[in-house]
Amino acid sequence: MALFGAFSAGKSSFANALIGENILPVSPNPTTAAINKIKPVDQDHPHGTVLVKVKQNEQLLQEINRSLKLFHLEATNYSDALEKISRISGSEASIGANERLHHSFLRAFSSGFSLFEHRLGSVFTTDLESFRDYVADEEKSCFVEWIEVYYDCELTRKGISLVDTPGADSINARHTGVAFDYIKNSDAILFVTYYNHAFSRADREFLIQLGRVKDTFELDKMFFIVNAIDLANSEEEMDDVLTYVESQLVQYGIRNPHLHPVSSLQALKEKVTGTVGTSRFADFEGSFYSFISQDLMTMAMDSAEAKWQQSVHILDKLLQTAQEGREEKANKLAALQLEKQAVIQHIQGKNAEFLQTQLHQEADELVYYIKQRVFLRFSEFFRESFNPSVLKDDGRDLKQALYSALDELIESVGYDFLQEMRATTLRVESFITKLLNEFQEHLREELYKHSTDLTLSNWELKRFQEIDFEGAFRDLDRKRFKKALGLFKNPKSFFEKDEKRVMSEELEGLLQEPADEYLAVQNRILKEHYTTSLRELFNLLIADYIEQTEEYYMGVTSTLTTDFPVEDLQATYNKIKQLA
């Protein structure tokens, strides 16, 4: 069972309270932190074992170049990168917040490269004490892809793995794709924010993504935690904060959120000392473990119950058949062969063409509305990119500042397209699941006309093959925006007159055609991928139904052709009925 922690501020203290021990250290720069997994111990990995995976050569160089790009630099190898980083001048106080984050990462890379130069791509084993350095020391953490900690505690004894991801504002572009995979495939998602912290821009984008996909899950597996409520001066103040957080979540598309106020600091003290306090952590744990032990378990039990009832029904039919006379058995045996042949021919005659047509129609419709939703947010992205703190007449190169603002705008809009495409995969997968379930229901109704005794259990789709997309506008020629940027005269007239609105409209218009081209390409990739998936899944479903059919008729035939001990069969049937 995977538990995904989409943590914001205060994440480590909350994770430690959840585990019940002080395990995860706090990174001074969580934007470059590794992905940490706390897993149940096993025979090969005893308590305290830590595995550290170092980034691959190509992956690390891509990350370095992504950061160098903000300083208009690019490196072809590590020696070149170290030389380029040394050329970045000026103190961090003199550059923007985004540049400071990337500058910090580049400096950490320069300082730690000699330690990892010959370990790139490797996995090595260490202990809990050393593990903390690979999380909290940026000169090491910037080289680490993931860390697996095998730890014996109450949480892991339940078979739960905790995935503690970097903050939503990680500079590692790959983390957004990894995070989405965990959103899709984890059994529960915990998003932790801090009591007196407003949602950052990165938090907002992550929460919007959660809102996009929330309704595609069979169960509501998202939990939202407001940490450090001990900072509240009163119950009324805490209620005001919770009301605000809930209103923000609703604004991001997350309706009826599971919202829990906690104090992880107090909770950890309570668990260590065995006392009961005011952390409210028990309330969260009650809700969380109820979800794990009841809601998730109910889904598994419903599936098992269906197979159980099918087995009981088949056993009942076998018992009836075994009790029939010899002549009646002979007649039934001949009829069964014809019936089996008709059933299998009917199943084999099915194809996925109609389902494929429905899939393409659904994909086209889903992608069509992506463009409208993204451009509804365009003015918001423009305001954040072209803002007074960036376009300030304080001696900086305003032309370069304009192009930096343009780059941020294009990256923001392109990222939103990417996130929409990722969310669309979940909607498509949900649609395919619905199609296949409806197909099975209709197929069983059709087979009932051939045999009223044949019962086939529902084939369960386990998991789809992963797919991801390129971000939009990555290779867009900035020259096409030269005229639009020329509308900027100076900061005063830009922000106080109508220049800002005119430029915004001009840039939005220039992005329409590239947006159409991007969506056309991604839609084709989407349909090709899921058409292949649909066909593969359909073939597996058909094969499963044929196998179930073969097994059923084999069992019935066996009772007709073998002197079966009816008394033993009756005794077994009676025992099973008593357990049901």
Give a quick set of tags describing it.
globular, 21 helices, 9 strands, single chain, alpha/beta, 580 residues
Outline:
This protein has 580 residues and is of the alpha/beta class.
The mean pLDDT is 85
**Poorly predicted ranges:** none
- Rg, rounded, reads 30 Å
| Distance, first to last CA | 28 Å
Q: Specify the number of helices.
A: 21
Largest sheet: 9 strands, mixed
Structural shape: globular
Could you please describe the fold and organization of this structure?
- This protein is of the alpha/beta class and 580 residues long.
- 61% of the residues lie in helices and 8% in strands.
- The protein contains 21 helices and nine strands.
- The protein has helices spanning 11-19, 57-69, 78-86, 97-116, 128-136, 138-141, 154-157, 174-185, 201-213, 235-251, 264-273, 281-322, 326-348, 353-376, 378-385, 398-448, 482-485, 491-496, 499-510, 512-561, 566-579, and strands spanning 2-7, 35-39, 50-54, 123-126, 144-150, 161-164, 188-194, 222-227, 258-261.
- A nine-stranded mixed beta sheet has the order 4-3-5-2-6-1-7-8-9, sandwiched between helices.
- Helix 10 (235-251) links the parallel strand 8 and strand 9 (258-261).
- Helix 1 (11-19) runs parallel beside helix 11 (264-273), helix 2 runs parallel beside helix 3 (78-86) and helix 16 runs parallel beside helix 20 (512-561).
- The longest helix is centred in the last third of the chain and has 51 residues, at 398-448.
- The mean pLDDT is 85.
